[in-house]
Structure formats: structure tokens, C-alpha cells
Amino acid sequence: MALIDDLIYECAVDIGDHFRRDYPTLSKTDIRDIEKEAVRLMYRYLERIREGGREPTESDVIYDAGREAESYIRGALFDKAIHRSFYSEERFFDMYVYECTVTSEVITIPKPYLLSREKPYVAALYESLLMSYETGEDAFAYATSECLTLFQACVDLRLEGYIEDYNRELQKYGLA
């Protein structure tokens, strides 16, 4: 049981770190409150598992309880509309890379080549979200779906051209 307790507190600190990074207007007190709420929510989640007739495992804490707590807290912050999420350009690009990786079955060229070609599109999307954020919108609240939409546009509109360019470069250097 001590291991489960340690994992819960470690996971709560990780959740606090996520919110500290994604919500720059949160104070230290806000982060501590988030960590306390995360602990409470994770214990509640594990109690429901016990009520179901089994003992919670370490993976229940690491994967399920922590994810559910973070999701609940993120939703509560969004509903309050007091604090807006914010992502750095680097983190936003990482989110785009993740969306690219998730749908990798449609990509037949090396990802670094694709990402180097997509960087201006991602930067333009980031700039538009940043402008909306500066006018008071919670523009980064839907950053994941924005990245997914941009990646889908890449696949639908630009991917064939990238493949042709890549193959042309391979032929140019005698690698095809």
C-alpha cells in the first residue's frame, strides 16, 4: 500500500508540473491546490476499483487514476475560464510531431523531411493562436485538435508534393 501511496503523490506532483507549464497564470498556491485535488481524485478512483472487487495496481495509479485526475482538473479550469492554457512554440511543434507520429501509416517519406517542410505551416498556425490568445481567448485549449486539423491538411493537400520532391532529390543524388 505504501508503494501505491508514493505513486499517487508522485503522480500528483507530475500533474502539478504539467499545469505549471501549460497555465502560466497559476500561482504556487493554485498548483498546490491542484496537487491536493489530484491526490483526492486518484484515491477516489482507486476506491471505486476496490468497490469493484479487486485491489488497485501500480498501473492503475500511473495510467488510469492520474490521467482521469488530470483530465478532470483541466476541464474544471476550462469551465472556470479564470486561467488560460498557453503553449510555447516548441511545445506546440512537439504536439504537431505527435499527431504526425500517431497517423504514421499514411507517411511514406522520412518524418524529419516531412517536418522540415511543414514547419512554416505549424509556425503560422502557432502565430494565429498566439494572436487570439493575446486578445483574451483560450486559444490553446484546443491546440491538439488544431494540430490534427493542420496535419490532415498536410496529408490531403501537400503530402503528394512532398513525396514527389523527396523522390526527385533521391534521384538527383543517385539514391533512388
Radius of gyration: 21 Å
Strands, total number? 0
> What's the story with the biggest beta sheet?
none
Unreliable residue stretches:
none
Structural class: mainly alpha
* Beta-strand content: under 5%
Helix content: over 70%
Please report the number of helical segments.
Answer: 6
Q: What string, H for helix and E for strand, traces the elements in order?
A: HHHHHH
How far the N terminus sits from the C terminus, by CA atoms, comes to 58 Å
Shape: globular
How confident overall, as mean pLDDT?
85
Describe the structure.
The protein is mainly alpha-helical and 176 residues long. It has six helices and no strands. It has helices at residues 2-22, 28-51, 58-80, 89-102, 111-134, 143-172. The model has no long low-confidence stretch (mean pLDDT 85).
How are the SSEs placed, and which strands pair?
Blueprint: H1 2-22, H2 28-51, H3 58-80, H4 89-102, H5 111-134, H6 143-172
Helix pairs in contact: 1-2, 1-3, 2-3, 4-5, 4-6, 5-6
Short description:
The protein is an all-alpha fold and 176 residues long. The chain is built from 6 helices and no strands.
Name its key features.
176 residues; mainly alpha; 0% strand
